[in-house]
Task: structure prediction
Amino acid sequence: MPPFGSTAIPEIPPAILDSPLMRRGGFDIFSGIVDESIKNSLLAEAVEQQTVITESLVTDSDTEEIRGGSPRRKFLSSAGGEFQRAFYQSEWLINFLRDLTTPFLRPTGLYGTFSYYSRTSDFLEIHRDIVACDVAVITCLENRFGEDKTGGKLCLYPSRTRELLSDIRATPEEGAYEVLLEEGLTIVIYGGIVPHALLPVNQDQTRVVSVLCYQAF
Result:
């Protein structure tokens, strides 16, 4: 089978299969990784970075992408700034993630990103993360609602890690586990293993997240 991090469904290495995070289903949600001060600083930086915002818009997905590819999506994003960079590269955070996943984990680059789901029906279809994002760390910085508070949930498929994305997309209700990530909460996910999606946001909903990627080497 192809090695972990390739463009085909890999065998999961024993070190990852036996890791605390994988034993929890390949993801977990944490409070306290980002305290109120860090959350506010990240959100302020996300607002500042809106000056360099770009749109991610894809209307037709690749049919059989395994890692990365081009899933259907509609949302806005920007590069992270210096505060997020310092948080992303912090020794304590990296050590925490290594204890949770694998000792062979490192930041993918210097910066993370901010994503903005702020327009009605902004979404990201079922996908696995790119090869350089074996572990994703997603923190909700803002999640403001109108009257309908059901939109913008993360939808994960921890029981369907060995399936092609096209099969999961054909039966998206099977094995779906929906999570509403509240402000200040962080989800750590084996993004290259566990298929996941961001369900469409509703009218008058604004969701801003910090996204950090780490690679197993």
Summary: The longest helix spans residues 36-48.
